[in-house]
Amino acid sequence: MFSPYEGQTEIGFNDDWNGQEIIDTAAYVGAFALANSSADASLLVTLDEDTYRTHHRDMVR
Description:
about 15% helix; alpha+beta
């Protein structure tokens, strides 16, 4: 699970990525592809210049 924060505010969340937008953006920037059935977390957000932090947690399935 992946969650970016600005200060104390969670500004996104993802557990198990999906979506054509992530596929297209990964290909555009030369990132590795994620398998359609993977349980990887990926999130596409536009951020202003600032300081951010992220929380990464394992999900037990």
